[in-house]
Amino acid sequence: MLHHVLLEVADLGASSEFYDAMLAPLGWRRHENGTSVIGYGISRPWLFISPGDGEGATGSVLVSFAAPGIAAVKASWEAGVAAGGVSAADPGETKGPGSGTFSAFLRDPDGHEVEITVSSG
After folding, report:
1. DSSP-assigned states of every residue in 76-107
2. Cα 49 from Cα 7, distance rounded (Å)
3. Mean pLDDT to the nearest integer, 62-73
4. Cα dihedral sign, 11-14-17-21
């Protein structure tokens, strides 16, 4: 079972604005709000962002968030793009391994890939 994920970011302020906007339509909120770490979740934090070495993403990372429906996928993707994310794939049907039946992909301000997905059944 996954316990938590930590993403190192170059600019904690810019990244927190992105994750605040992108996660709100999914029902997530900040649980920890420090100067060295911010933690997000629904009932408890499991996604943390923290200042790294100032160079941003250095490897290939994909974090996928479950959405309660297609409208939430679209709203989360739109909010993420409006808050500085870059679209990697518009909302639509997906068939990739591990993905749901409807997903959207974007990159956060550090280049980490984010998927918002909903499964049927």
Report:
1. HHHHHHHTT-EEEEEEEE--STT--SEEEEEE
2. 5
3. 93
4. negative
